[in-house]
Amino acid sequence: MTSLSQPAATPPGTPALPSPIGPEHDPGPSHAHGAHPDHTLTGFVIFLASESLIFLALFVGYAVFKSSAPLWLPAGVEGLEVREPLINTVVLVSSSLVIWLAERALHRQRLGEFRAWWLLTMAMGTYFVVGQAIEWQHLPFGLASGVFGASFYLLTGFHGLHVLTGLALMAFFLVRSLRPGLVLPEGKGVVAVSLFWHFVDVIWVVLFVLTYVWQRR
Amino acid sequence: MASSSTTSPSFDPRMLKEPPPLPGSPGSWRRYFSFNTDAKVIGIQYIAVALLFLLVGGLLAMIMRGELITPPADLVDPTVYNGLYTMHGTVMLFLFLFPVLNGFNNLLIPPMIGAPDMAFPRLNALAFWLFPVFGVILMASFLVPGGPSGSGWWAYPPLSTQNPLGHALNGQLLWILAVAVSGVSSIMGAVNFCTTIIRMRAPGMGWFKMPIFCWTALAAQLIQLMGLPVLTAGAVMLLFDLSFGTSFFKPEGGGDPMLYQHFFWFYSHPAVYVMALPIFGVFSELFPVYARKPLFGYKVVAIASFAITVLSLIVWVHHMFYSGTPQWMRNVFMVTTMLIAVPTGIKVFAWIATLWRGSIRLSTPMLFCLAGLFNFIFAGITGVMLATVPVDIHVGNTYFVVGHFHYVIFNMITFGVFAAIYHWFPKFTGRMYYEGLGKLHFILTFIGSTLNFLPMHWAGLMGMPRRVASYDPEFASANVLASLGAFLLGVATIPFLLNIVSSWVRGPKAPPNPWNAIGLEWLLPSPPPAENFEEDVPTVISGPYGYGLGRPLVEDQERFERRALQT
Amino acid sequence: MTRTGRRQSSAGPSLVLVAAGLGLDALASWTMAQQSYHWLPVQASTAAPYVDNLFALETGIGTFILVGCSAVIAWTLLFNRAPKYDLDDGDPIEGNLSLEIIWTLVPLLVVLAIAWHTIGINRTLATLGGKQRLATAAPTATASAPMATGSLPIATGTLPIATGLLPISPDNTEIGPIQVIARQWSWEFIYPSGVRSSELHLPVDRPIHFRLISMDVLHGFYIPAFRLKQDLIPGSVIDYRLTPSRQGRYRLRDSMFSGGYFATNQTDVVVESGADFAAWLAAAERAPLRPSFNAANDLWQQRLAKGNRGWATVPPAPPPEVNVSLDPQNTHEA
Known about the structure:
B: mainly alpha; 16 helices; globular; C: 334 residues; alpha+beta; 20% strand
């Protein structure tokens, strides 16, 4: 358990022994080697940069609609309730700190501590998603309620999808860390998930300001 | 670092595989039909499937030209014509050009920079296998009630969200899904290509020792990373408008149809550079080989690629000059659009200067390059015309634009694709192609494409709108010529396919470096082994294109040349 | 492998030759620029000469570049070809900084000059008035919006027709607003007096004010002889101005793809003298409203008669009720 974040001598997932594996599972020589240096983080950062542009495009679209649409709020809708979402926001943003603690624990090779912080992050993320779902249920407008309703649900829904993805990734690495006898070679995987989680949080802050704080026209 | 894991000399998995030739192993044709992670296999998979779709798109084009050979809409119903032209554009862009260029990226980038493979081989294979998936989705739209999308490859709302039959499953929905899956695949590819080029270059290969093809590939993939997300945002909104009753782009609900045009063109204009840039790279690779001279002004040509990337992201509004865009915005985007002429001009002049006092060999790839260069100069000039607002207001959305666009996309880009296929054919198949058939292919293609696309400019100047199934009789002569050219282009594919298939099956064996070219890929055997140079990567000591300079490209060059010959 | 072979045959052309070549190139460019006017329809609006002159200028510059580049390429193909079995390399020239600076700066200055010139023309033309966005019906709070109704609230016939304006006055004041209403697939024109027609009549040499309205999808208001084009955007009312300058019958074409029978969405523009226009208006006012000739509807009826085969399309809107209909027998000039 001490060699937690070091690169393993033999990467797991690579067949250690030659076995008559089927054609689909034959990784081919390029994988049996396992010699390539790992560029996961470079690739992941490039991906996140690109992903953030989808949100940027959606944000710009929202701002354009909001400032130019002849009609904005559906009839009978005054605006968005801010209190509950604000609590949600605080929880989600502080989970960024918690996941950083988890990452640090892993770096210091304290597996138990890592799992605890990791689990807490997941709990906070889950709280956020559940809160979001409850808010959606009680809103007095729907997806088809003009361009405001559509934009609101698209933005929060697309972000929510990212939160769920983050939770799934965290669950995946949590299960991995629980497997007995197996070291955690994916130190970089954890860093990547952590990066992704920070990204999701930053996006939410912008989204929150755009939809909940900037309500006047 | 991780290389320590493989230094154990006792285990080499390839040794163990020799007796039973497994379907995934090198040498077996079955690997081309499997989830293979070797970039060279994936490259050939991309190119082969893309060429199949070139035939599909070409067939659609020939039916369209059959319809347009006479003024009235008499061959097919106008609604069928609309579907055909929509699918022709979509197939050619998303199922032919993007994939075929991804194929070249896969084949060329790792050997050119001395990498064993792409940075993420599994992601690479996944990106490829999404290609048949969205290909099938798009083709399936021919079978749904109401036929495929008939709203043009721009899919402008509100037309694209009208859904005349009201079915949940309709051609437009499948079109959006196909484009979305294609976008996912392209993003996967872009992440992979960028990481590979940034992180996996051979020792000694600094940025300014990298071949121009890699520069242009990187510049193009950066556009993908920056533009595709914006298209995705627009496509998701369009999907919601079409299927879930939202009104992002519907004026009835307060939406704005113009916003879609901004989203669409923010990506789709730069997308032309995603396709053009790698072909600039092909020209920069091939002119030095067949003129036996260094590329003129290598550094400036390299940097110009990135100037094009940056400029391409700030020109999109020139597609909306007549859509109610305010005057100041038209002026700004006119200037940015015209500025693109500067870096592309630099490249054109550099290629011409590369020919100057060279020792020119007119083999098939060179012929395609020269014709492609000539056509590109022509297309660049009409491009500047289109950038100036008053001329664009007259000829925008007419056949002039169709002619200009096909000069770019076919007469330059696809010519470059053919040049690249011929040039690197021996390297990656291990067989030589037949020069005679290649030249026949070139002559038919050049005559056919000129006949097809040149008269379109005239029809457009006279005021023939694009996308029409019927037209006024005064445009008949231009359209007859264009149709004849299109059928000739159809004929031209016969020698091409014959050449490719028969050469691959029984062409003469290719030496490692049949063109006497300089570049890391030519230091490998033909075809290169699965992992290219494996552990023994040459150290690059000089820039590319050292023709006539008598300097070695890498340390120990002769050893690598000998090794390539022995294998 | 990489021998440095110098070959004697590839001596460059002399200065005289270059000067002669440039002279010929300039001559060819001037000729092409003159020719370019013949590639365009007749000039029938005040905007047309500006567009054509700009196009001629660009044709001239473009020809100069195309011929110049092609000549150099042709020269290399004639005099720098490798003889058969000759494996020598060319001259190992890697670049030339001053040359590279020249061919960066000169094109830059040329395009900036063209852009500057064009901005001036844009200011002169300035045909586009302010774009107004329509406030449409309020979206309902919860109910899902009906899908693709295809009709805007303004389609109910309550169009803001400015009546009472004298259509013709002896001075050079603006005529209008003439409302241009596009549908899938018909054109309808409503004059200030309330006359409706499906072919557009305009007096020559008078500034015209149009109000462009689309009832369903995007359309394009394009008259090639005028060299002008403007999209019609559903949900917006667009003010547009132009001045016809030549009498004749021209073609108006829908230029923005609008679906099914897009290709048939064309009509005629008749530019006539002020007196003829006034007479036409007066006669039109007396004519009863009747459904216009409409090619899209005819084709649609044919399709229905043949069993409605073909791919999906919305059915054409009913032909507009007009005082004066388009006559498909007429022939247009451009």
